[in-house]
Amino acid sequence: MDDVARTAGRVPANGIELAYETFGEAGVPPVVLIMGLATQMIAWPDELCEGLARRGLFVVRFDNRDVGESTHLSSLPPRLADILVRRRLSGMGHDLPRARWPEFVREIAALAAPADGYGVTWLALFLMAVALPALVARLAGGYPPNPGPELAALAPLAAVPAVTAMIIAAFAAWWLAALLAIPAALLVTWQLPPLRRARFRAAPSPSLRTGSAAATLRLRLLTVNAKYGAADPAALLHILRQHDVDVLAVQELTPAMVSRLTEAGLTHVLPFSHLDPRPRWRGTGLWALWPLIPLPPVPGQSSAAPRARIDPPGGFPVTVTAVHPIAPSRRHAGDWRRELAMIRETLASADKPQVVAGDFNATRDHRAFRELLAAGFLDCADASQNRSWPGFTWPASGRAVPVLRLDHVLVSRTATVPMTRVIRVPRTDHRGVLADIEFTRTT
């Protein structure tokens, strides 16, 4: 309307120009109307602006940069890193200097820093405090009571905040970085893969069938936790055929799953079996390409732990055991430790060579599992000549990223492991473990 003074213009600001309009008389209380990103000033209705001016306000509205009558930039917008470290644009945004990583880390830490300037130090200490419970539990062997075993299992994850804390501390004081480097180095060292074993071979090892002095038994084994028997039978059969599996170990094997696997044709791929299916998570079973001679199971286990001897024609016998000790959660940490100890004692008294496969509900960060390895076994994921390290297997449901290696294939120390890898099995919360194993016997 004509009774409200209205002007328009452009004002320079930091190398650009912003178009604006005013309503009312200068000298009265101002009000600036700011519209959202990439929106013109005319989104503020004229009626609103004039109404505010009639109430004694000096109203200003303007076009944002890159819209309406304001300056439009042809250069690329600043990177997020440059915004965070509060870099200033040069001229019209051209020749934007790259943020250096030391400055970037320091500025990020400063965003959360209190006014006294100790933000970097406190941030580093906070991150290390996050990692310390898992570190202490691992040092204690992951022994009960809870949450000892569960915290020790988180040692691989704890290495991330520990290393981050050490790096951030380096921007505060060298002595603090050196101090935090001690726990960080421990956590990282514990997760490094063991050195591959070098095994001397004077010549290829012929089969016993040739009457030679040495024989080599080669077998490929797959172990998988079926998640209460919910694993996809068709997908599992496809994996067995695709990888020419000789021995299959299944944990959480239910009677219904045995029926579904039989209907899918498992007996045509692996005709021999030694099974102990049970409801929910307590069942376990073995299938093989060769006859399985049943042996007494591992005693004192919450889940079935069948054992059998494989005696391939022209080869030599190998004992195969499938295990699934109880998880060390809630009130079961003591039972978990006792079951692992019973597995160790049973296997240590058995004839060699041996293969032990299953969901151990334990990692190298648990002393009880390391004691099992010390009884004369190698973890195929560590000893393999071709391995998909770190070989994490849980959790694997949906889009979850595995962060723990709970599933293992263990072999006698006399074995050679050419290959180990993890396998995705549909409708389970664990990755399967596939291992090529070679046993050589001199006669």
Give a written overview of the molecule.
By secondary structure, this protein is α+β, with helices and mostly antiparallel strands. The protein folds into 3 domains: 6-72, Rossmann fold, CATH 3.40.50.12270; 112-191, no CATH class; 213-442, Endonuclease/exonuclease/phosphatase (Deoxyribonuclease I, Chain A). The chain is built from 13 helices and 16 strands. The strands form 3 sheets. It has a 6-stranded mixed sheet with strand order 7-8-6-5-16-15. Strands 9-10-11-12-14-13 form a 6-stranded mixed sheet. A hairpin with a 2-residue loop joins strand 1 (6-13) and strand 2. The chain is elongated and about 105 Å long. Residues 79-99, 111-117 and 198-212 have low confidence and may be disordered.
At a glance:
The chain is of the alpha+beta class and 443 residues long. It has 13 helices and 16 strands. It starts with 5 loop residues before the first strand and ends with a strand.
Please name the CATH topology of the largest domain: Deoxyribonuclease I, Chain A
Distance between the termini: 110 Å
Which regions are unreliable across 5 or more consecutive residues at pLDDT < 50? 79-99, 111-117, 198-212
Shape: elongated
Task: Tell me the series of helices and strands, N- to C-terminal.
Answer: EEEHEHHHHHHEHEHHEEEEEHEHEHEEE
Share of β-strand residues: 15-25%
Highest-level CATH class of the largest domain: Alpha Beta
Question: What is the strand tally?
Answer: 16
Supply the helix-strand structural class: alpha+beta
Q: Describe the biggest sheet? A: 6 strands, mixed
* CATH-derived architecture of the largest domain: 4-Layer Sandwich
Give average pLDDT, whole number: 84
Treating each run of at least 4 consecutive H or I residues as one helix, how many helices?
Answer: 13
Helix content bin: 25-40%
Radius of gyration using CA atoms only? 33 Å
CATH superfamily caption of the largest domain: Endonuclease/exonuclease/phosphatase
Strand order within the widest sheet? 7-8-6-5-16-15
